[in-house]
Amino acid sequence: MQHPTTTETSPSKMKAQCLLCLVTMDVLVLKEPREGASGPDPYIEALSSHGIKATLIPVLSFEFVSLSTLSEKLFQPEKYGGLIFTSPRAVEALRRCLEGEEDWIQTQKDKWKDKPVYVVGKATAALVQEVGLVPRGEDTGNADKLSTFICEQEDARSRPLLFPCGSIKREVLPTVLKQNGVPLECLMVYQTAKHPHLDNNLNEYFTQQGIPASIAFFSPSGVKFCLKTLQRLSGKGLEKIQFAAIGPTTADALSAEGLPVSCTARKPTAQDLAAAIAEALH
């Protein structure tokens, strides 16, 4: 995100900015821009197709951990029945482990390709394909539905599924698999924290652009880390904001904080979220 220059803003000018912002249907998208890709971020592009201007502000920062342990496990495909990825960041951990590992490509890759690789969402599925594996379950859309899908494919006789995950994860998937006797091995491969520049970036956004017509959230962690700052910056204008969620888990987190959820994406894709926001704003 390019940081706008901070300028002093009078109360009357701020009110005018807020009204203009609502008229032009600006949307604040609380996620990091897509990494390493040319062209606009898919969420910016999808919202733009509906005539909506969007600004991205990253909420989370990540630190990879236990990569040596993950690498060892990736060289032991015979011990596992498959893989589970519920976030792009977990796939990034796998990719980092495999950088320069020609031996893995030559001796282990095909063994993993013969095993199921369960994923949530198209973004995660696309990254799995980039490392040469075949994703399953991408249309399930969330961990709850993916859990059901996995249980329909696996049973207690299966070898454990390897689940690289983050430090902040919902327990629904491990719980459902355990209840259905499906063996699972979790390995934390990244830690999630509040982005160090989040509060400053939000302050700059509200100072220069006023109150957005809508704010889109992408995780319960995003709700947790942003809420107090957004309440302070919006004041009474908070009631005018349409709150959007990428999925039901995030929507539940918003509702738990007493915020009305105006719309939830039918599936966790840029197109579905943009369509839901456009409908809510109209």
Description:
The chain is an alpha/beta fold and 282 residues long. The strands form two sheets. Strands 3-8-7-4-5-6 form a six-stranded mixed β-sheet. Helix 2 runs parallel beside helix 13, helix 3 crosses helix 4 and helix 8 packs parallel to helix 9. The chain starts with 10 loop residues before the first helix and ends with a helix. Helix content is 45%, strand content 17%.
Descriptive terms for the model:
5-stranded parallel beta sheet, disordered N terminus, elongated, alpha/beta, 282 residues, 6-stranded mixed beta sheet
Question: What's a quick, concise take on this entry?
Answer:
With 282 residues, the protein is of the alpha/beta class.
Low-confidence stretches: 1-24
Classify the helix fraction into a percent range: 40-55%
Q: Strand arrangement, largest sheet?
A: 3-8-7-4-5-6
What is the gyration radius calculated from CA atoms?
A: 21 Å
Spatial gap, N to C terminus: 27 Å
What's the topology here?
Blueprint: H1 11-23, E1 27-29, H2 42-48, E2 54-56, E3 60-64, H3 67-74, E4 82-85, H4 88-98, H5 102-107, H6 109-113, E5 117-119, H7 122-130, E6 135-136, H8 143-153, E7 161-166, H9 172-179, E8 184-194, H10 198-209, E9 214-217, H11 220-234, E10 242-245, H12 248-256, E11 261-264, H13 270-281
Parallel strand pairs: 1-2, 1-9, 4-5, 4-7, 5-6, 7-8, 9-10, 10-11
Antiparallel strand pairs: 3-8
Helix pairs in contact: 2-13, 3-4, 4-7, 8-9, 10-11
